[in-house]
Amino acid sequence: MTNSADQKVERRLAAILAADVVGYSSLMGRDDEGTLARIKSLRHDLIEPKLAEHRGRVFKTTGDGLLAEFSSPVEAVRCAVELQGSLTADPSQMLQLRIGINLGDVMIEPDGDIYGDGVNVAARLEQLADPGGICVSAKVYEEVRDKLRYTYDDRGEHQVKNIARPLRVYSLSLHGKPPRMNDTFSKGSHRPAVTVLPFVNMSGDPTQQYFADGLTEDVVTALLRVSGTVVVSGASRIGRPQSEHRTPRANPTFLLEGSVRRSGNRARATTQLTSPSGEVLWSDKYDFELNDVFAVQDELARSITAALKIKVEEHEHHHALTKPPTNLDAYDYCLRGRHLGRSFHRSDRQRAQNMFLSAIEADPEYARGYIELAWLDIRRLKWGEASDPDAALARALDAATTATTLDPNDADCHWMLGLIHLWKRDHAKSIVCYERARTISPNHPDLLADMCDMLGYAGRPEEAIEVGKMAVRLNPNPPDWYLWDIGAGYYLLGDYNEAMHYLQRIAQPGPAYRLIAATYARLGRPDDAMQAGAELLKINPEFSISRYAAQAPYANREDLDRYVTGLRMAGLPE
């Protein structure tokens, strides 16, 4: 029979984070009052807000440390990485932490205190961590290794005090975290960063601009597929920069710049790679027939990685580019269609659709034509234009499935599948597809920016904002839609001032006038809201709140209601 004492003990699986201050005794010996004040400030200003942000709670504190509980090991590791990153980034911070994280069965007392091996193992892991470091157990490692793309070092098995079995320990290398804006290529980083400026069209024919843009984007794609390389792109997968002028290099990155001159079926590309200090590392010229363009892109990616002395395995080179077409007309049709498809004018997008159909006709085995067709249908949904959303989604899914079958190593294929599943309201499947795309191309800023949008719809606006800001760090000349997606995350959180901070930076709002109108309305600025609504109706005269509400794939009804209420406050038509 179970006694009453046993009935009071609750057991559950929990992620436990243990942290303590490095060198606490010696710090206290030198300045006890100052040390206590700094620790109190650290807990109040950094640790407690970070724990709350990641849904953790402190259940025990000591003079120099604390124990916290999380329901998710992913959130526990994210919290730990952000804590250590914040401490490292602040040169005035005199304290360092060691952190250990374990996943295990624990006992919860009625007063909220937690006991058991799950807690004890976390405490032992913290003792094994380096100053400023993080150690995790094998259970945590198995849960997070495919979800959080850090570098994990296997430190083998350790026999620790009061734990009968050997403890397998993994440490996190914080070099694997996303770069901050001002340390994209910081001292000690193992992830070289390359800023790729848009190739200059030297053909003397403005109608050939699409070719220079397309070549730039495909070189970026090649580099994004190379392990260890962070690409800070001056051009974007979906939108061109707001300015055609070169962006000053505020960040110390390697710089790739070039030009392309096309004449009929021949082209010349001139490229140059310079170091952060301005030293020319490599330059070359390529004269080629258009059927050699993929070999040129491949050679560019290989030459750049060689110049940076990046160790890339041969199979990664093999998958550096998407599967090329056998017919170069298909490639040219896709470049032309991609250029037209970004327009806010429907007539241009119809011409783009015809280009993509021509690409498929020219080469039915080329995945890119199908992907671009799917993009057009999804844009119509996102912009509230599709009159038959079910038919649009069916066409997009058919095209994306075909593309994925043809080229399963193309991140864009899985990205597109994730986007389609989002609009089919299968949020769990959508997240799986986005994560698969992110595994293939972890530093792809456009993918991360669109993932920000998806996470907002999925009811995870805090994560959406985090991922969106990561995209901006990777592409500090972000196209408008990056800012739109981050603004949407803040809108869903009810932080309308911060939402407007991002929305006001958009150069050509287009469909984003929808969110701008709702945000102005929420801020109590009805005149600005009505003006933004009027601009929206100029480019989409068929817009209605009811159609938007029927199509928008929000996981949570309250999120949709928040948006719809703002649209009504702005005076947009029902």
Question: Key features?
Answer:
single chain; 574 residues; alpha/beta; eight-stranded mixed beta sheet; 14 strands
**Overall pLDDT metric:** 78
Helix content: 40-55%
Poorly predicted residue ranges: 1-6, 175-190, 235-251, 308-321
Regarding quaternary structure, what we see is single chain
Distance between the termini: 64 Å
State the secondary-structure class.
alpha/beta
User: Measured on Cα atoms, how large is the radius of gyration?
Assistant: 26 Å
The total count of strands amounts to 14
The share of residues in extended strands comes to 15-25%
For the largest beta-sheet, the strand count, sense and barrel status come to: 8 strands, mixed
Shape: globular
Give me the number of helical elements.
Answer: 23
Characterization of this structure:
The protein is built from 23 helices and 14 strands. The chain has 574 residues and is of the alpha/beta class. The strands form 2 sheets. Strands 1, 2, 3, 4, 5, 6, 7 and 8 form an 8-stranded mixed beta sheet that branches. Strands 9, 10, 11, 12, 13 and 14 form a 6-stranded mixed beta sheet that branches. The N terminus is likely disordered.
Secondary-structure blueprint of this entry?
Layout lengths: L3 H4 L2 E12 L2 H7 L1 H22 L2 E6 L3 E6 L2 H17 L7 E12 L5 E2 L1 H12 L5 E4 H7 L6 E8 L8 E7 L19 E4 L3 E2 L7 H16 L5 E4 L20 E10 L2 E9 L5 E10 L3 H15 L6 H5 L9 H14 L4 H17 L4 H16 L6 H18 L4 H13 L3 H14 L4 H13 L3 H14 L5 H14 L2 H8 L9 H10 L3 H14 L5 H7 L5 H13 L5
Parallel strand pairs: 4-6, 9-11, 9-12, 10-12
Antiparallel strand pairs: 1-3, 1-4, 2-3, 4-5, 6-8, 7-8, 12-13, 13-14
Helix pairs in contact: 2-3, 3-4, 7-8, 7-10, 10-11, 10-12, 11-12, 12-13, 12-14, 13-14, 14-15, 15-16, 16-17, 16-18, 17-18, 18-19, 19-20, 20-21, 20-23
